[in-house]
Amino acid sequence: MTTAVDDALWSAIGDPIRRQMLDLLLADGDGTATGLAERLPVTRQAVAKHLVVLDRVGLVHGTAAGRERRYRVDEAQLARAVAQLAEVGADWDRRLQRIRRIAESIARRT
To answer: Does any domain span residue 75?
Structure first.
């Protein structure tokens, strides 16, 4: 595998609420914790905590907007995550092909 897998990044993406948040932010262009909380089954405080996690791994960046922060997805970091996922998928495809060849070899001998 040529791309190093970022465990913190994938841990952040692994949470279904955070994935929903990313989807909403991508669809809307940006958003606030209050706006996201209105559309998700969690409190504003929970949304704020999830945003901290996403910000820490670089998937979103917040800018001050009055009394709130507006968050926007960092598309370069998201592209990095997609590239990592593709690389991991390709590695597993190679592993499964090797297992298939071994199983076929065993089956031919019996």
So the answer is: yes
